[in-house]
Specification:
Largest sheet: 2 strands, antiparallel
Shape: globular
Radius of gyration: 20 Å
Number of strands: 2
Number of helices: 14
Order of helices and strands: HHHHHHHHHHHEEHHH
Helix content: 55-70%
Mean pLDDT: 88
Strand content: under 5%
Low-confidence stretches: none
Number of domains: 1
């Protein structure tokens, strides 16, 4: 039995003793790294916005999800994401009632906020700190969901969700052409190196660089940036969590600080969605939201430093 397998079993078998006495005795290696940054290096991880707003039932439901999320930080950033996602999804359902179709509701948000300069400025800042491992997650998700035996109109939910295949008015022709070129260049004889190279390509592209591939030149736009963060990254991370497609990220022997970063980044995007979609209408001032969001982006940069680009 491996060291990690034994640690998992020991944690469960001794849980009552651990809770009553010394929880830190059973921290997993990645958890120890994160706690060292917080308590020994004195790096701040996250600061929630101040909420001096009137009592409201719908508002308080979303605040309860935020509290549940905060109760999981720092040890369970992946679980914190699950709770903050619920607050964001609740916000979407309220805003676009009677629709309960989260895919459709996020799409409406993307189209709305793609022309909101404040939100786009935040999105641009977030894109500068998206870890390379997260871009690899995006590449892998596209690769696994793109069935080369099917036409574009018959592709999976993710491909349709990102490319707006079923919406002629908003069909993402530029992204369709770009992803076709990425598929041709990187998905044949796919391996870890090609996945990483494709991730680097996307990182440069969505950070505003004009990229050449397959003899064609591509430049992104604000709508595409919203799509890649909310319709692709955020929604796919939610799906991977909901459908239990991987081991709990911090209990794996392969877990690194990049694993934690990926969860943290996904949490941060959902938190931003919650503030703009669900909390601004309850009296949170736009200026205060912007200050808090930008502060948390700066905290993210300081906490992970050079690891963001590894």
């Amino acid at each position: 039995m491996s060291k990690f397998s034994k640690l998992r079993r020991d944690y469960i078998n001794n849980w009552n003793i651990i809770i009553a006495s010394n929880p830190s005795a059973y921290y997993f290696p990645l958890e120890k790294i994160v706690y060292d940054k917080i308590f020994n290096q004195h790096l701040d991880l996250f600061r929630p916005i101040k909420v001096n707003i009137p009592k409201d039932v719908d508002c308080d439901i979303k605040l309860s999800y935020l509290i549940d999320a905060l109760s999981q930080i720092p040890r369970g950033m992946d679980i914190a994401f699950d709770f903050i996602w619920r607050g964001y999804e609740k916000s979407l359902q309220e805003k676009y009632a009677p629709s309960t179709n989260t895919t459709k509701n996020i799409k409406e948000e993307v189209l709305k906020y793609a022309i909101d300069s404040d939100v786009i400025n935040v999105v641009n800042q977030v894109l500068t700190v998206v870890p390379l491992q997260t871009w690899e997650f995006v590449v892998k998700s596209i690769k696994e969901n793109w069935d080369t035996s099917k036409t574009l109109n018959d592709q999976s939910g993710l491909i349709k969700r990102v490319l707006y295949v079923d919406d002629s008015a908003n069909r993402q022709s530029n992204l369709i052409n770009l992803f076709e070129e990425i598929k041709n260049q990187y998905f044949a004889d796919y391996d870890a190196k090609k996945q990483r190279n494709a991730a680097c390509f996307l990182r440069h592209y969505f950070n505003g660089q004009t990229m050449n591939i397959g003899g064609n030149s591509f430049s992104t736009n604000n709508k595409e940036k919203m799509i890649i963060l909310f319709s692709c990254l955020l929604y796919e991370f939610r799906n991977s969590r909901t459908h239990a497609e991987a081991i709990s990220p911090f209990k794996s022997s392969k877990a690194t600080i990049s694993t934690y970063m990926h969860c943290h980044l996904s949490f941060l995007v959902a938190y931003i969605g919650l503030l703009f979609t669900g909390m601004e209408k309850h009296g949170l001032k736009r200026a205060d939201i912007l200050v808090n969001v930008n502060y948390n982006i700066d905290l993210f940069k300081k906490f992970y430093g050079k690891a963001i680009n590894k």
